[in-house]
Design a protein that fits this description.
By secondary structure, the chain is of the alpha/beta class. Helix content is 48%, strand content 11%. It is globular, with a radius of gyration of 22 Å. The model is unreliable at 245-254 (pLDDT under 50).
C-alpha cells in the first residue's frame, strides 16, 4: 500500500514541471523514481541525465553540470557541454544534492531562479529548459541548520517531496522483489533458480535490510554465483542473513530512529496535518496515530 501511494504521487507529479526532491535511504531506488518521473512526463522524448553530486569537486561539478569553454582550466582543450545543455528539453537528476559545496549551491540556485547558466570560463548565458529532480538521504533542514546547505536553495529544490520508505517497513515486498531479481538473473542464462529453500526464504524475510533494495538485489546476484542447481539455498546467502546476526541486531535497534525521522518529515511536509501526513505515508490515520504514540510523538 505504501508503494502504491508513492506510485500515484509520482504519476500526479510527472504531469507538471514542478521541481521534486526525493528523500530516501541509500539503496531505496531514488534514481528509479526520478527516471519514472521523466518517463511519465511530457519531457519523456527528451534526454534524462543523472549525476552523483557526492563524487564531484567544485571545478568538476561546474564543468559536468554547466560545461566549459576551451581554456577554462588546465586541460580544457575544447568546449564541453554540461548536463544542463545535454538534457535540453528533458530532465536533470541531481543525486545527493546536499553534498554540493556552498559555492556550487549558489550556482545551482541561479540556474533554478533564472533558468539559464554560464559555462565555466564562458561569458554568455545559455538558456536551461530542463526539469530538475534532486535526491538526498538526509534532511535538508538539518543541513541548513548546520550551515551546510543554503536555505533559499532548499526551498527551490524542495517544492514537492517524495518519501521512499525503507525495505524494512514493507516486509511484504521482500519476497516479491526476491522473485523479481531471480527472474532477472534467470534471464541471463547459466544457472536457473526455480525454488527457494524454506530456511533461505525465512532468512530473507527476517533480515532488516539496512542496504534496502540494492542490498537484496546484490544478495540474490551473489547467490546465483555462489551456488548451483535450481534451488536457492541458505548457505548461498551472505553471513548476516544466515544468523551471524550482530548487524541484524544493530539495524533493528535503529529502526525506531528511522521511523521517527520519517514520521516527522511527513508531518513537516503536511504542515502538521495528520490526515495529510497519513496520505503521504500511504497509511490510515489510525495507523499513523498508533505509530506516533509508540514512538512518543503523540
Amino acid at each position: 500500500p505504501v508503494m502504491r501511494a508513492l506510485f500515484e504521487r509520482v504519476r500526479r507529479l510527472a504531469g507538471s514541471d514542478v521541481t521534486v526532491l526525493i528523500r530516501g535511504e541509500s539503496g531505496t531506488g531514488k534514481e528509479l523514481v526520478a527516471r519514472a518521473l521523466h518517463a511519465e512526463s511530457p519531457r519523456r522524448d527528451r534526454p534524462f541525465r543523472a549525476i552523483n553530486c557526492a563524487t564531484l569537486t567544485d571545478e568538476l561539478a561546474a564543468s559536468e553540470l554547466f560545461g566549459h569553454v576551451r581554456g577554462a582550466f588546465t586541460g580544457a582543450v575544447g568546449d564541453h557541454r554540461g548536463l544542463f545543455a545535454q538534457a535540453e528539453g528533458g530532465t536533470v537528476f541531481l543525486d545527493e544534492v546536499a553534498e554540493l559545496s556552498l559555492p556550487m549551491q549558489a550556482r545551482l540556485l541561479r540556474v533554478l531562479q533564472e533558468r539559464s547558466f554560464v559555462p565555466l570560463g564562458g561569458s554568455r548565458a545559455v538558456r536551461a529548459d530542463v526539469r530538475v529532480v534532486s535526491a538526498t538521504n538526509r534532511g535538508l533542514r538539518d543541513a541548513v541548520a548546520a550551515g551546510r546547505f543554503r536555505e533559499d536553495l532548499m526551498y527551490r529544490v524542495r517544492v514537492a517531496v517524495l518519501f521512499l520508505p525503507p525495505l524494512r517497513e514493507r516486509p511484504g515486498d521482500v519476497e516479491l522483489l526476491t522473485w523479481h531479481f531471480v527472474e532477472r538473473f534467470n534471464a541471463r542464462g547459466g544457472r536457473r533458480i526455480t525454488a527457494i529453500a524454506d530456511d533461505a526464504r525465512a532468512a530473507l524475510l527476517a533480515h532488516d535490510w539496512p542496504g534496502n533494495v540494492r542490498e537484496l538485489r546484490n544478495n540474490i546476484e551473489a547467490a546465483f554465483a555462489m551456488g548451483e542447481g535450481p534451488v536457492l539455498r541458505l548457505d548461498e546467502l551472505a553471513p548476516e542473513l544466515r544468523g551471524e546476526g550482530a548487524r541484524r541486531t544493530e539495524a533493528r535497534g535503529t529502526w525506531a530512529d528511522h521511523e521517527r525521522r520519517r514520521l516527522l518529515a511527513a508531518l513537516e511536509e503536511a504542515g502538521g496535518r495528520r490526515a495529510e501526513a497519513a496520505r503521504i505515508l500511504g497509511v490510515s490515520r489510525s495507523t499513523l496515530w498508533r505509530r506516533m504514540k509508540k514512538l512518543g510523538l503523540g
